[in-house]
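Renewal narrative, Specific Aim 1. Our central claim is that a sequence can be written position by position from structural information alone. The example that follows is taken directly from our test logs and has not been curated for this report. It begins with the structure tokens describing the chain, in the order in which they were read.
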């Protein structure tokens, strides 16, 4: 077992030795390669770097385009009137002024239609006025009927109110009288009961005195006579109380019956008053509806479409057409198309004459897809034309059409590429539809400090710099890191808009980018 372990250890040591040898060999090879690269870089620094003076250059950029001269405006003259053309007063190439009569259309049919419409409108308005008059009369009659009906209903209410008030007063008076008589009846009943009790006591005294009567005894006789006299007095008082009680009781019972009758009359009168009021209200609602229905009918007429509205609209259109039978030039300009002739039947809305304004001319140019995004309104342009022996005319881009279609400018211009631009030029001897060329200035920097754009480097802060050089007394150069600000890039050069670089500085042309600030090098005569 120990022999096997010993064998394994020897095997591991042997493997480690081999790995170490391989690592050492790799290190030697890398060191040798670095030394060769360093030597090569040093050799290139001495032999591959040139020095060039920084100059001011023309960095302007432009594109050349072809196109056609056109007027600043293009107006297709049309008319809303249709009919036979009686006369055409212009020819191709004529110069016209605004307001000049250029075409005349026959007005016979239009005038007949206008006369027929006027008669129809007059008749329709007469019928409408009569209907309005009748509705107004119906409204007045409905209001008068309502007034009379409501007045009659109000009289019924007033009569019912009076009857109710009278019945109420009667009922109240009877009730008051009944209450008074009832109080008297109660007193009379008490008096009657008292007199009855006293009379009965007196009768009992007479009976008792009669039993005790002795003709021979004066005292018993006297007592008897007194008892009879007292009875007679009490009897008379009882009779009077009975008469009064009976009379009052009869009156109270009669008043009670009268009150019931009065109450019933009052309730009936009150109900009649309510019925009269309800009838008045119903009449008011009913008549209001009748009046309002007529009123609404009258008011709705102002919101409803007039029976002559369509005819009035047609009449207005015809009158407009009549005015348009004399077609006048809407603007000054050059006649570039005449599409009609005398005797033709003209269809409204179709172009009859085309007039182009020539106060300011334009050159419409085709633009390739690769150039369209470079153009902007306001860019300057130089226009030339074979007709003027390539005389240069100043212009300005006033429109850029970036929508690709067969009609880049609509009816105004048909672009072959689908993209186009307008260049406005000062009025010259050029004529509409002449061919022309335009040089559009994309970027104008005629005197810009510039350096080759592929020599510009950037530091850790992403700030641009360029390597410059100063010549030493020993004939060699020392490299310097010079900060710059870059602007427009054009072809091989980039514009320097700021920083420490100046015209006349020496530029170290080092495409290996091996120069560092402070490095010394010898200028190479190598041609790139």
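The sequence written for that structure reads:
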């Amino acid at each position: 077992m120990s022999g096997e372990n010993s064998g394994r250890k020897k095997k591991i040591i042997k493997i480690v030795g081999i790995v170490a040898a391989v690592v050492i060999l790799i290190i030697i090879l890398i060191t040798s390669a670095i030394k060769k690269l360093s030597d090569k870089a040093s050799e290139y620094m001495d032999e591959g770097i040139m020095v060039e003076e920084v100059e001011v250059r023309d960095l302007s950029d432009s594109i050349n385009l072809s196109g056609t001269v056109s007027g600043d405006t293009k107006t297709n003259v049309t008319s809303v009137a249709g009919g036979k053309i009686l006369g055409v007063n212009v020819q191709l190439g004529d110069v016209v002024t605004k307001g000049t009569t250029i075409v005349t259309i026959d007005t016979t049919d239009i005038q007949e239609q206008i006369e027929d419409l006027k008669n129809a409108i007059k008749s329709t308005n007469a019928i409408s006025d009569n209907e309005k008059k009748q509705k107004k009369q119906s409204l007045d009659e409905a209001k008068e009927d309502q007034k009379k009906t409501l007045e009659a209903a109000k009289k019924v209410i007033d009569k019912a109110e009076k009857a109710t008030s009278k019945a109420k007063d009667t009922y109240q008076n009877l009730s008051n009288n009944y209450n008074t008589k009832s109080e008297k009846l109660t007193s009379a009943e008490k008096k009657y009961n008292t007199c009855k009790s006293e009379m009965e006591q007196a009768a009992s005294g007479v009976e008792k005195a009669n039993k005790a009567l002795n003709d021979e005894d004066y005292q018993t006789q006297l007592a008897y006579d007194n008892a009879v006299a007292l009875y007679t007095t009490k009897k008379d008082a009882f009779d009077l109380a009975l008469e009064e009680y009976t009379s009052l009781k009869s009156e109270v019972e009669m008043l009670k019956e009268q009150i019931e009758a009065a109450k019933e009359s009052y309730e009936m009168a009150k109900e009649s008053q309510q019925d009269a009021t309800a009838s008045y209200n119903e009449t008011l609602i009913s008549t209001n509806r009748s009046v309002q229905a007529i009123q609404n009918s009258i008011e709705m007429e102002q919101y409803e479409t007039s029976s002559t509205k369509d005819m009035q609209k047609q009449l207005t259109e015809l009158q407009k057409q009549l005015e348009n039978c004399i077609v006048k030039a809407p603007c000054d300009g050059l006649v570039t198309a005449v599409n009609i002739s005398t005797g033709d039947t003209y269809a409204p809305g179709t172009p009859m004459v085309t007039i182009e304004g020539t106060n300011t001319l334009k050159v419409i140019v085709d633009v390739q897809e690769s150039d369209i995004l470079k153009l902007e309104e306001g860019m300057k342009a130089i226009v030339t034309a074979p007709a003027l022996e390539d005389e240069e005319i100043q212009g300005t881009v006033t429109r850029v059409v970036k929508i690709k279609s067969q009609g880049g400018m609509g009816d105004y211009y048909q672009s072959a590429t689908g993209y186009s631009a307008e260049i406005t030029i000062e009025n010259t001897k050029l004529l509409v539809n002449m061919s022309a060329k335009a040089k559009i200035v994309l970027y104008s920097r005629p005197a810009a400090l510039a350096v080759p754009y592929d020599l510009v480097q950037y530091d850790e802060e992403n700030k641009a710099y360029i390597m410059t050089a100063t010549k030493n007394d020993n004939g060699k150069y020392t490299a310097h890191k010079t900060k710059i600000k870059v602007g427009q890039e054009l072809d091989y050069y980039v514009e320097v808009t700021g920083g420490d670089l100046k015209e006349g500085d020496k530029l170290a042309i080092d495409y290996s980018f091996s120069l560092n600030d402070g490095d010394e090098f010898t200028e190479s005569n190598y041609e790139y």
